[in-house]
């Protein structure tokens, strides 16, 4: 189990990596492939739809073993979408804090 600051550090590091992939587009990067996809932004929007469905199916599964893995896939693709729209994980954090 991690505390809040460690959880934030992971999200910040992941988002910084996503921004680097967006800006540098290295060969062989799955993240970079989402930024250069022929479908444009629709590629990541489709992935978000697929991953959300997989989260629902995992939640309905009796053993629930896949729920965390599918949730991580969904969060990752959501962060890619934010980076694509020039929003940041800090913007997301601020939105959540406003509601708290
Ligand atoms: N967190 C993730 C992450 N979560 C999910 N995925 C990818 O998202 C895809 C999920 O798609 P699916 O579940 O549908 O599986 P799939 O059938 O293999 O995918 P498709 O062929 O349908 O695209 C897989 O290719 C996963 O590898 C991720 N890819 C990258 N990251 C992070 O991004 C960082 C940079 O990765 P690269 O851009 O690949 O260097 C990594 O170090 C990770 O921290």
Automatic annotation (TrEMBL):
Q: Name one GO cellular component term.
A: cytoplasm
EC number(s) given by UniProt = 3.6.1.31
Q: Which GO terms describe its molecular function?
A: ATP binding; phosphoribosyl-ATP diphosphatase activity
Signal sequence residues:
none
Predominant subcellular localization, coarse grouping:
cytoplasm
SUPFAM superfamilies per UniProt? all-alpha NTP pyrophosphatases
Question: What Gene3D superfamilies does this protein map onto?
Answer: MazG-like (1.10.287.1080)
Among InterPro entries, the record links this protein to: HisE (IPR008179), PRib-ATP_PPHydrolase-like (IPR021130)
Pathway involvement of the protein, from the record: Amino-acid biosynthesis; L-histidine biosynthesis; L-histidine from 5-phospho-alpha-D-ribose 1-diphosphate: step 2/9
**Pfam families, A to Z:** PRA-PH
The record's subcellular locations are:
Cytoplasm
Key words, A-Z: Amino-acid biosynthesis, ATP-binding, Cytoplasm, Histidine biosynthesis, Hydrolase, Nucleotide-binding
Q: Which PANTHER family match?
A: HISTIDINE BIOSYNTHESIS BIFUNCTIONAL PROTEIN, HISTIDINE BIOSYNTHESIS BIFUNCTIONAL PROTEIN HISIE
What family does the Swiss-Prot or TrEMBL record give for this protein? Answer: Belongs to the PRA-PH family.
Name the chain's protein: Phosphoribosyl-ATP pyrophosphatase
Organism, as annotated:
Haloplanus rubicundus
What lineage is on file?
Archaea, Methanobacteriati, Methanobacteriota, Stenosarchaea group, Halobacteria
């Amino acid at each position: 189990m991690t505390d809040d600051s460690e959880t934030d550090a992971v999200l910040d590091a992941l988002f910084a990596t996503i921004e680097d992939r967006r800006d540098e587009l290295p060969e062989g990067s799955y993240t970079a492939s989402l930024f250069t996809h022929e479908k444009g932004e629709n590629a990541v929007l489709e992935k978000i739809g697929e991953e959300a469905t997989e989260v629902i199916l995992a939640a309905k599964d009796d053993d629930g073993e896949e729920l965390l893995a599918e949730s991580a896939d969904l969060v990752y693709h959501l962060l890619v979408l934010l980076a694509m729209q020039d929003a940041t994980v800090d913007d997301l954090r601020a939105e959540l804090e406003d509601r708290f």
